[in-house]
Design a protein that fits this description.
alpha/beta; four-stranded antiparallel sheet; single chain; globular; Alpha-Beta Plaits; Malonyl-Coenzyme A Acyl Carrier Protein, domain 2; 16% strand
Length: 300
């Protein structure tokens, strides 16, 4: 059985929508544009890297492209019994599982993006990937930053993301290098999944309170607890908690075989999650669909 997974903010790149423009699935871009009263097509086709790095643009563009590829995958006959998404991608995963309609998810993503942009403007921060260290060493590196850096994403063995103030991430990065790790800055516009996002909590929670979640038709493995969920009543609190708490992606992937999953299909640009899956659970099959050509090859 397959699980579909969706990348989050940071996977965006200029022109990422171009391969899909003119395909039947491109109608999802119009849907998101109408719901949010924004020109999402321009973000996907014409925006430069600096424009896409802004939180309010990155989240909307990434979500819209995820919907496009999801619709195309469904039309091609792909099916799945489980879903998961990395951070923002969790919203698209809920659409894939039938827990949220596309329009309702778009409204939530729009509110989340604007709330997180405001929080990032109010309390600026950044993120960096630490490679080659275990969680204890990364935590010790964050501790050396004096309360201004936190572990934000446990992505894969030897790949953990730290986030915090610019000063804090620099200090944590220096401490990680002293411990033998490598540090790579990430093209994001804030310190996501840390207390610096607390300013976005009220607006996000208000949006979640009005969202019409339904019981899912497939298991969705959540970021905050790495456990599968189907119940409609679970998702308000899980998505709320996700805002300031770490993404437990490594554990989420490890949960998939227990659900009967033997292949993970990534729907989004870049194939980053597929690379993580290879490191986390090498026995799982992997398929990355980022363009119509990838989809055509998968259908053969």
């Amino acid at each position: 059985m397959d699980a579909v997974v969706f990348p989050g903010q940071g996977s965006q790149k200029p022109g990422m929508g171009a391969p899909w423009a003119g395909t039947p699935a491109w109608r999802a871009v119009g849907l998101v544009s109408d719901v949010l009263s924004r020109d999402v097509a321009t973000l996907l086709l014409d925006a430069d890297a600096a424009t896409l790095q802004a939180t309010r643009n990155a989240q909307v563009a990434s979500f819209a492209l995820g919907l496009v590829i999801l619709d195309a995958a469904r039309a091609a006959g792909l099916t799945w019994s489980a879903a998961a998404g990395h951070s923002l991608g969790e919203y698209t995963a809920l659409v894939a599982a039938g827990s949220l309609g596309a329009e309702d998810a778009a409204r939530l993503v729009g509110e989340r993006a604007e709330a997180m942009q405001a929080a990032a403007d109010d309390r600026p921060g950044t993120m960096a990937a630490v490679l080659g260290l275990d969680a204890d060493a990364v935590q010790a590196s964050c501790d050396a930053a004096g309360g201004e850096a936190w572990m934000a994403n446990d992505n894969a063995p030897g790949q953990i993301v730290v986030a915090g103030t610019h000063t804090g991430v620099a200090a944590a990065g220096a401490a990680a290098k002293e411990r033998g790790g490598k540090v790579m800055a990430l093209a994001v516009g804030g310190a996501f999944h840390t207390p610096l996002m607390a300013g976005a909590q009220g607006r996000l929670d208000a949006a979640l309170a009005g969202a019409p979640f339904a019981d899912a038709g497939a298991e969705v493995v959540a970021n905050v607890d790495a456990a599968p969920h189907r119940a409609a009543g679970d998702w308000g609190r899980l998505l709320s908690a996700q805002l300031c708490r770490p993404v437990r992606w490594r554990e989420a992937v490890l949960a998939l075989p227990g659900l009967g999953v033997n292949r993970v299909v990534e729907l989004g640009p870049g194939g980053v999650l597929s690379g993580m899956v290879k490191r986390i659970a090498p026995d799982l099959g992997r398929l990355a669909i980022g363009t119509p050509d990838d989809l055509a090859a998968a259908a053969v």
